[in-house]
Fold:
Amino acid sequence: MSNISSFSPIEQSMRVIGIETSCDETGIAVYDSELGLMSDLLYSQIDLHAEYGGVVPELASRDHIRKTLPMIDQALKESGSARADIDAIAYTAGPGLVGALLVGASIAKSLAFAWNVPAIGVHHMEGHLLAPMLGDEKPAYPFLALLVSGGHTQLMLCRDLGDYQLLGESVDDAAGEAFDKVAKMLGLGYPGGPAIQKLAASGNPERFRFPRPMTDRPGFDFSFSGLKTFTMNTLKAIEAPEMQDKADIALAFQTAVADTIRIKCKRAFEQTGLRSLIVAGGVSANTEIRRTLDELAARSRARIYYPPLKLCTDNGAMIAYAGLQQLQRGYQEDSPIIVRPRWPMTELGS
Ligand code: KG4
Ligand code: ZN
Structure:
């Protein structure tokens, strides 16, 4: 037995590498339980996929293969970490594109085997959920979480790490997916969210009012597909639309998404009695959604916790942080390489 085993794992400082390769971003980070985020590298494949108007899975996998190891090297250097300083390697095990996930998982497992440390498979959305903890203020459990990304729109009740109850989710398109599709129809680039936000800034708020789907029904589910069709029909009804028309449409769409989200979050405050809400995932970078939710929070005497802007979209830091939480709770590694392209977060505790 080594001397190390006489220390409780919780008292020791721990350092984790995070590897995120679930979609079109290679994110590598080093997070230390005492020193915080020591390196956070991001390589975006956006240019690679832009000409196709969306992510091409096979191209994504190949690019992750090219980038992941050199970026791990760089992150170790940047954080001044020797291999012996690393206590675990956390990687995104799902949900996401299966080929892209397999790249991160195989590299994480191989390195972990070579360095004799655990490899920790992290749920991508749990990574997003915990990203606000990388900011200055952290909510205490229990709290509500709104996860809005390219693949998910979920409202959850979080009782503890790994103990999540799904209150409602999108029955069709995720919020980010709707942003991306509407951007495409308006002839804007990929990813659509930032492009719509930019164009909407010059929109006329008086011109259109788009529906707030499923807000007249009880419950917490979302549906953005009808809103997308409504947006398309509005565009089609305009002969030779000009940039101002598109800006007015972008604004009406963005306002409708923000207001729909506000109505569901208000309902969640009322029905659960909770007053802390985490808002995370790529769409949480949207300034109009943040403004709308901040207004709601002020009126409801609630607190909203967002990730630092840079950590709203995919990144390695959130994976390293989520991995560290598991390590500190005595995570035991399972040996096979398993990735889960589909993975309900409510299965995490079981
Ligand atoms: O969380 P994320 O980086 O990847 C997934 O896990 O899906 O989210 C990407 C999504 C894309 O759909 C993108 O259009 C959207 O987040 N997004 C935004 C903004 N920035 C990124 N949507 C609205 N406003 C933004 N500023
Ligand atoms: Zn994501």
